[in-house]
Amino acid sequence: xxxxxxxNTENPDERRKRGINTNPDGDVDLPNAPYSTFRYPACPTCFxxxxxxxxxxxxxxxVDDDGAWSPSSTAGILKPAxxxxxxxxPGEVKIAAEEAIDxxxxxxxxxxxxxxxxxxxxxxxxxxxxxxxxxxxxxxxxGEENFFAGLRADNDGSSGFRCSESAEKILxxxxxxxxxxxxxxxxxxxxxxxxxxxxx
Length: 200
Prior knowledge:
single chain; mainly alpha; 3-stranded parallel beta sheet; 5 strands; 36% helix; extended
């Protein structure tokens, strides 16, 4: 991969040409990659100032000669603040997600097959609340036939939609439309404010 420069570009078409395949979930499939030798980077903040453990003792963060996190450590794996496939969701995150659905007026799923129960049940919760559901995803989506049951044939998308297109093709236009809508809203607010001052 390094020899052909596959990691030197963010362009997905160029990466494919150079041998990197990206799965629909965003994972990169590297041929012949020795996953058994994968090592975590150490958290630089924890390395400089090891955090306190639940029992009150100071944790230990050690690295090997290459700077990778050492298994003899008791803390300090550098990991993004996301829940990986197969991990348990902390209770407070689960509650916050459910509350977000309960406050929402609609839900948009982008780039997910809803294969994990934790993601699927949030969309199911939205359906039970009769929220419009939009799904943008290549490939199948768990339970999608139930999410769109009862949609009228003349629905313009405001009651729900299913789009099987690439997010990188669709989202730039969505962002452009949202910016346009926001600028129109600001202009309207400005006009109303000026009119209010003029009338008073």
